[in-house]
Design brief:
four-stranded antiparallel β-sheet; alpha+beta; single chain; Outer membrane efflux proteins (OEP); 13 helices; 452 residues; two-stranded parallel sheet
Length: 452
């Protein structure tokens, strides 16, 4: 009886220990998987927009410009003031800002004032320019996040392929050494195989460094912890239909945010010039006053009748006979407008040239013969296992026939001549041109910028 009780107790302890071990293993697995963040392109863009400090600063600057426009507008709205000018009077009842009163109420509203109206309109246009600057910053954040995401996916895909090619190159090098030992291969072929393997290894090292840099950049944009490895999925930007260069230029001139901001600034300076020119005309304000007077201020001694409650309403008209400030302000506003118009013309011309240039480069990269100049080595193709066969050379030293007999087919590997030609592998020039062209046209395709 005692033995059976001890066995039962031992089984319970072992079962409880097993449950604890299973729970800890499950928890450790969940913790290990939580260190990896699997992102889609849409989610990455949404996180970048949510955590961007540049975008937050641009939003604050846009709000400041909007509040400034509201401040200038307030001068044309009703303004009420109240106060008291109570005091002792000996002699004539005169005051510093009007007659002494127990209580006073003042209403002031600007009806017509050219310079103030011009400043108000200019502030509205500058607020619109700041709103466009916010949109431009938002587009820039989207482009940075999307380009880093897409490039990281392509770099990892290229690394995967290059590691496979490294294994193939190693097999070729081993076979070539065996053939050299058998006396059926030249030593130059071993050197060539070693050179191929070294080039592949160099490209792998280069892309591994680029992968680390891109992952850090993307993690910084998304504000993710440094101990997380980002898992990205290869995605492509939505393809856009080919358009004539004229349409692209017209679209860029109509939709480019930089051009829109410059146009808003030019309109702001136009409003300011128009307002300063109206400064030669009179200004009109609507003014109303109420005052509660007292007898101890001697009003009944110096005036025939005395009223405690007094009310006045009328127009305050100021006619400028000579104003040196108005002439100087008009000259300054005219100079500012001329500078804005020149800047707008320059930006339009530069934008047109850049769009034509990018469009031409995109067409050149998309042509059938563009691949030969983008990444192919001028030294010719190098044979590695696993692809299309290469014609064998005649003679005893030809490696083609024996390798095919050994069951190792050959294919062509295009290798760059050096580090300077490794860039198209991790960032295709055509894609970079497409992204820059989308940036110029302020068109990022559907799906970007959403919070889903």
């Amino acid at each position: 009886m005692g033995r059976s009780f001890m066995k039962t107790k031992q089984r319970k302890v072992l079962a409880f220990t097993g449950i604890l071990l299973l729970a800890s293993a499950t928890g450790g697995f969940a913790q290990g998987t939580s260190d990896t963040e699997i992102l889609t392109l849409k989610r990455a863009v949404a996180l970048a927009l949510q955590n961007s400090r540049e975008l937050a600063l641009a939003r604050v600057q846009s709000n400041v410009a909007e509040k400034t426009a509201n401040l200038n507008r307030a001068q044309f709205l009703p303004n009420f003031y109240t106060g008291s000018g109570i005091g002792y009077t000996r002699g004539y009842p005169q005051g510093i800002a009007g007659p002494p009163s127990i209580l006073n109420l003042t209403y002031v509203q600007t009806i017509f004032n050219g310079p103030l109206r011009g400043e108000f309109r200019a502030a509205e246009e500058r607020a619109e320019g700041q709103r466009l600057a916010f949109e431009s910053t938002r587009d820039a954040v989207i482009v940075r996040a999307a380009s880093a995401y897409l490039e990281l996916a392509k770099v990892r895909r290229s690394l995967e392929l290059l590691r496979q090619e490294r294994e193939s190159a190693q097999r070729i090098m081993d076979i070539t050494r065996e053939r050299l030992g058998a006396g059926v291969e030249l030593p130059i072929e071993v050197t060539r195989a070693q050179l191929t393997a070294a080039r592949i290894e160099q490209r792998i090292v280069h892309l591994e460094g680029r992968e680390e840099a891109l992952e850090g950049e993307l993690r910084g944009l998304l504000r993710l912890p440094t101990n997380q490895r980002l898992e990205v999925a290869p995605e492509e930007l939505p393809a856009s239909a080919d358009q004539p260069v004229r349409e692209l230029v017209a679209m860029a001139l109509a939709e480019n945010s930089s051009i829109k901001r410059t146009e808003a600034e030019r309109r702001a300076r136009e409003h300011r010039l128009r307002g300063e020119r109206i400064g030669y005309f009179p200004t009109v304000d609507l003014v109303s006053q109420y005052a509660l007077l007292a007898r101890f201020n001697n009003f009944d001694q110096f005036f025939r009748t005395f009223r405690r409650n007094n009310f006045n309403i009328g127009l305050d008209v100021k006619i400028p006979l000579f104003s040196a400030r108005t002439s100087a302000a008009v000259a300054l506003a005219q100079t500012d407008l001329n500078a804005a118009e020149l800047e707008l013309k320059t930006k339009r011309k530069d934008l047109e040239i850049e769009v034509r240039q990018q469009s031409r480069q995109a067409r050149e990269r998309g042509s059938p013969g563009a691949a030969n100049g983008a990444g192919e080595s001028p030294r010719g193709p190098v044979a590695i296992p696993g692809g299309t066969r290469r014609p064998a050379r005649r003679g005893k030293s030809s490696p083609g026939g024996n390798q095919q007999a050994a069951g190792v087919p050959r294919r062509r590997l295009r290798t760059p001549a050096g580090p300077a030609r490794a860039a198209p592998l991790h960032r295709p020039v055509g894609e970079c041109i497409s992204i820059r062209l989308r940036r110029l046209l302020s068109g990022l395709g559907p799906g970007f910028g959403t919070s889903g």
